[in-house]
Amino acid sequence: MTTPPLYIMLCSADRDKIQMAGMAASVGAVSDRKVHLFVSMGAIKAFKTGLPASDRYQPSPFSKELQSAGVPDPLELLKQGKMLGEMQVHACSMVIDVLGWEMESLEEGLFDGVMGLTKFLSDAEQGQLITL
Amino acid sequence: MSERKTIDARGSFCPGPLMELIAALKLVQIGDEIEILSTDKGTVNDVPEWVAKVGHEMGEITEKGDHWSVVVKKAK
Fold first, then answer.
1. What is the ipTM metric for this complex?
2. Is residue A1 part of a domain?
3. What is the CATH number of the domain that holds A37?
4. Residues A91-118: pLDDT tens digits?
5. Class of B4-73 in CATH
6. For residue A27, which of A75, A125, A130, B46 sits 20 to 30 Å off, Cα-Cα?
7. What are the chain B neighbours of A80 within 8 Å (beta carbons)?
8. Is A85 within a domain?
């Protein structure tokens, strides 16, 4: 039986949630499972190109512990997942429009394009959807 | 002739050791083994689960004081 694709809707800029998105997406992708990550709302700000890691994520209940322990950076996990497995990452078209951003505004080497919510949710009917 | 390569992932947190193992497996030949050294407690469960899912072969899992040695053989 083929494993259904994993769809992750990431809306929060909290370090905790972006960390979990990076872990779930990368592990899913390297486990012979198609992963689709949709980045929307405040989460998109963590993916702005050129930000230092210290400014990228919002404080959250576990962010200090994650930072001090030196866990893998979530964006690096996503890049590893894309490199080693099958993962697509799309930015929500609405938040890109609201911010007046272009694809060039986003972290290089991570995004496959911009997508609308309707298309993402329609695609997600084929698999398992996680919202963070 | 098969070879064994050791990856020292001690100090790396989940899913770091697994990702390092997978990256290493991409670079070796079928039949070769990767030994991953890890202090991450999840490694001893996560790696066998991943190996069973994707179709490689598990080798020995050995506790070595403050870390584990987990051996995986590339099967495809």
1. 0.82
2. no
3. 3.40.1260.10
4. 999 999 999 999 999 999 999 999 999 9
5. alpha beta
6. A125
7. 19, 23
8. yes
Compute the nearest-CA separation of B70 from chain A (Å).
Answer: 18
| Distance (Å, whole) CA B42 – CA A70 | 17
Q: Identify whether A28 is part of a domain.
A: yes
pLDDT of residue B2: 85
DSSP string, B5-41: EEEE-TTPPTTHHHHHHHHHHHTS-TT-EEEEEE--T
Which residues from B are below 8 Å from A23, CB to CB? 14-15
Q: Is the pLDDT of residue A1 over 70?
A: no
Residue A67 lies in a domain: yes
Q: Is B14 a catalytic residue?
A: yes
Mean pLDDT estimate for chain A:
95
- A30: nearest CB among B12, B14, B19: B19
| For residues A59-76, average pLDDT | 92
Domain count, chain A: 1
pLDDT score at A93: 95
**Nearest-neighbour CA in chain A from B54: distance (Å):** 6
- Contact between A84 and A30 (Cβ < 8 Å): yes
For B22-63, how does the pLDDT look when each residue is reduced to its tens digit (9 = 90+)?
Answer: 999 999 999 999 999 999 999 999 999 999 999 999 999 999
Quote the CA–CA distance of A130 and A4 in Å, as a whole number.
13
Which domain covers residue A17, as residue numbers?
A: 6-131
